Amino acid sequence: MSHGGGGHAAELYPENQILAIGTILAIMGMYISQFFPQVSMLLGGLLASAAIVAGANTTRKVAAYGLGTGVPSIGMLSLGMGIISSVAGIYLVNTVVKILGAGSELLYIIPIVVIVISVVLGYIVGRLTVKPIGMKIPVMVESMTKLSLMGALSIIGFCTAYAGGFLPNIIIPGSIENGVMALAFIAAGMGILHPFNACLGPNESHKRTLTLAVACGFLTWFIFSVARLDVVSSIASIVLWAVVYKEFIKQSLKDACCVYYTPEIPKREM
Amino acid sequence: MDSTLIILGALALSSAAATVAGCAEDLESDVGSQSNPNSQVQLAPQMGNIHRYFNKAISGEPVSYGLYVAVAGTIAWALMNIGMSTIFALVIGAGVAAFIHGVYAVSAYLGRIVGQSQNFGQPVYLDVVITHLGPIVGHGFIAVFCMLLAAYLATSILGNPFPLPLVALIFGITVGAIGSSTGDVHYGAEREYQKYPFGGGVPVANHGDIDIKAEIGIRNGMDSSYFCSKLGGPLTGLTFGLIVFLDGWRGIVGGILGNALGGSLISKSIIAIIVGIILVAVMVCLNRLVEVYARKKYGPYTDR
Amino acid sequence: MVIGLLIPFVEITLAGAIINASVHFVPVGGAPAAMATSTGIGTGTTQLAAGAGFTGLMAAATMAAQNGIDIFNPLHWIIILLSGAVGSMIMLGLTMLIGQLIYVFGVGVVPAADKCERDPITGDYQKSYITPGTTGHAIPTVCFISGLIGAALGGIGGALAYVALKQLGFSSEVAGIMAVGFFFMNAVLASYNIGGTIEGFHDPKFKKIPNGIVASFVASLLTGIIVVVMSLGI
C-alpha cells in the first residue's frame, strides 16, 4: 500500500487538546467499570471509545507525512505496543503486591502503570525508528509515544469494560485468557487507523476525519457490547453510532464536487 | 472411532472451508477494489480517469479480515457460552461481522472519493455504493463464515491451544495476507490494465491509467469480480486450502509413520518436520519449472 | 531461579532480533508488485510477514500443546521451533508458488529480478526479461529461496517468543496474545527499515539489516525486562 501524503489541512482542534480529553475520559471509564461493574459496558465502553478518537487524530497527524508503508502499519505498531503495555501493567502491579507484600489497594493504580509503561515503550520505540532506522518524520517520536499510549488505553479500556474491572483476578480470566483481548487489539486498531486511511487525499478535512473517528469509536463499542451480549449498551451504541455516521455521510455528500445516482461520466471542464 | 480418522475428517472439512473462504475473500476484494491494486483506483482521477470503481480502502486486507473474523469469532464464542448451538452461533457471528464490513466499506468509499473530489472532479456515485454493497457484504459473509468454521475446528478438534477469538484473528490475518498477495495480482496487473496488450508488467508511466470502459458501457467493480473468478479467485482459494491441509497432513503422516515404527512422540514430530521440508523442496522445484517454462515460452525482450 | 528467568529473557530478546531479520528476507514489492511493476509478492511487508509468522506460531503452539511435550527439554524445544519454521515455510512457499502461477499464466510475465544481473542461484540472465519501464516482476528463484529463509526465521522467531513466554509460566492464551503483539511490533520496525519494497538477500537494501536488528534488539530487550518482571506476579 503506498499512499501519497495528504498534506496538512487546517486543524479544527489542537491535537494535544483531543489527546488530553481522550486520556482523561478513558481513565475515568476504567474506574467507572471497576467500581460500578453493572454499567461497565454502558459507560466504560463509551468512555473507552474516546481513546480511539484521540488515537485516530494522532494517526492523522503523523501519517500525513507519508510513511512509505501505508497507514495501517502504524496502527498495528501502536496496538502491538499497546497490548504489551496493557498486559505488562496488570501483571507488574500484581508482582509488586505479591513480592513486596504491599496492600491490595495498590492494585487500583493499574491504569496509571499501564499509561507509564506505554509512554516509556512508545518513546523508546519512537527513538529507535529515528535512529538507527532513520525515519525522516519530524513528529515521529512524539507521535509514537502518543499512539502507544492511545493503543494501550483503548485496549485496556475495552478489556476492562468487557470484564467489568481491571483487577487481575477479574480481567485475566474475564478478558485475556478467553481471547477477547485479541478482538480489542484488532477492533481498536481498526478504529485508530481507519478514519485517516479512509479520508486521506488533497481534500481531506479535519472535521470529516474526526466525525468518522467518533463513528468508529462508537462502532467498536457496539462490537464489544454485542460480544458481551449486553442489550442496553448495544442499543445505546448503535443509536449513537447511527447519529454520528449519518452526520459523516451528510458532510461527505456536501463536500463532494457532485453526487450522481446514474452511470454517467461528467464532462471535463475543470 | 479411530481418532486419526476424526482428525483427518476435521482437517478435510477445514481445508474445504478454507478453500471457499480464500476464493470468496479474493472476489470480494475485487468487487470493492481493496488492498494494493486500490492504489491505482486512487490514482486514476489525478490522471484524468473519472471512474466508477468502488474504492474500498478500509485498510490492508489482512487487518480488515482479521477484524471481521475476530468479531465473528468473539460473538460466536459468547453465544456458544450461553448454550446456543454451534452452527447458529457461527452464522450470527458472521452476520454481525458482515454488518461491520458494510459500515467500514461505505465510510472508506465516501472518505477516499470525497478526499480528492474537489481537486480532480471525481463525483460520488451513490448507485455504485448501493449496488456494490450487496456483493461485497455477501462475499465477505461467505469468507468470514468459512474462516470461522475452520478456526472452530482448529480449536475444538485439531488441538490448537488458543481461544477461539485469537485463532479467528490469526486466521483472518492469514487469509487476508494470502488474498492480497496472490489473487489481487490478477486484478491489479491484468484486469485494471486490460487495454494494454497481454504479457507484460505495467510500466510506472502508465500507473493510474486504468480501464474505465467495460465490455459494454462504463466499468464497475462487479465486472472485475466476474473476470477474476476465472483464475485469481480459485487460485487464492487453492492456496489457503492447501496451506491448511498440508500443514495438518504432515502431522498425520508423521503420526501414522511414527506408529508404524513404534516410535515415540519425538520421532513422530521429526517425521512431520521432514515431510514438511520435503513439501517445501517440491515447491521450490515447481517454482523453478514454472520459471523455466515462462522464460522459454515468452522469451526475452529483443527490441531495445 | 535466576537461570529460569535468564533463559527466557535471552530467548525473547533474540526472538525480536530474529523476527526483524526474517522480514528483510521476504521479497515484497508492495503495491507496485501487485501491478507487476516490481519484483516480489504484491502485498505489504508487515502483513505478509505477520501472516507467515502467525502460521508458524500456531504450528509451534499446537506442537507445544501436545501431551508429553516438555518445553524445558532441549530436544523438545528444538522440535517446537522447527515446527514453527516448517509451518511458516509451507505458508509462504505456497503463497509464492501460486502467486507465481498467476504472474505467469494470468498476467503473462517472465519472473525477473531487477537488483542483480544474473540470478545468484540459477545463473540465469535477468535484465532482458524485464518489461521496459518496470523494475522486474514475479518471483524468480533467488527471491523464492530468500523468502523461504525469511519464513523459516519468522516461524522460529514467533515460536521462540511463544516458548519463552510459556517458560516464564504464562498460560497458552496469554502467551499467544503477547506473542502476536510482540511480533507486530518487531515486524513493523523491520518494514520501516526496509521502507516499502525489497527483493531478498541480493537487494542492496538488505545491507540495512543491522539497523533493523539493533532497533528490534533494543526494543525486545526492554520488552524482555518487562515480561520477566511480570512473570513474577503470576
UniProtKB/TrEMBL annotation, chain A:
One of its GO terms (molecular function) is tetrahydromethanopterin S-methyltransferase activity. It catalyses: 5-methyl-5,6,7,8-tetrahydromethanopterin + coenzyme M + 2 Na(+)(in) = 5,6,7,8-tetrahydromethanopterin + methyl-coenzyme M + 2 Na(+)(out). InterPro entries: THM_MeTrfase_su_C. It is a multi-pass membrane protein. Pathway: One-carbon metabolism; methanogenesis from CO(2); methyl-coenzyme M from 5,10-methylene-5,6,7,8-tetrahydromethanopterin: step 2/2. The chain crosses the membrane at residues 39-59, 71-94, 106-126, 147-167, 179-200, 212-244. One of its GO terms (cellular component) is plasma membrane. Its EC number is 7.2.1.4. Keywords: Cell membrane, Membrane, Methanogenesis, Methyltransferase, One-carbon metabolism, Transferase, Translocase, Transmembrane, Transmembrane helix. Its main location: membrane. It is an enzyme of class 7 (translocase). The keyword Glycoprotein does not apply. GO terms for biological process: methanogenesis, from carbon dioxide; methylation; one-carbon metabolic process. It is found in: Cell membrane. Belongs to the MtrC family. The complex is composed of 8 subunits; MtrA, MtrB, MtrC, MtrD, MtrE, MtrF, MtrG and MtrH. Part of a complex that catalyzes the formation of methyl-coenzyme M and tetrahydromethanopterin from coenzyme M and methyl-tetrahydromethanopterin. This is an energy-conserving, sodium-ion translocating step. This is Tetrahydromethanopterin S-methyltransferase subunit C. The gene is mtrC.
TrEMBL record, chain C:
Pathway: One-carbon metabolism; methanogenesis from CO(2); methyl-coenzyme M from 5,10-methylene-5,6,7,8-tetrahydromethanopterin: step 2/2. Its main location: membrane. Coiled coil: none annotated. It is a multi-pass membrane protein. GO terms for biological process: methanogenesis, from carbon dioxide; methylation; one-carbon metabolic process. It catalyses: 5-methyl-5,6,7,8-tetrahydromethanopterin + coenzyme M + 2 Na(+)(in) = 5,6,7,8-tetrahydromethanopterin + methyl-coenzyme M + 2 Na(+)(out). This is Tetrahydromethanopterin S-methyltransferase subunit D. It comes from Methanofervidicoccus abyssi. The lineage of its organism: Archaea, Methanobacteriati, Methanobacteriota, Methanomada group, Methanococci. The gene is mtrD.
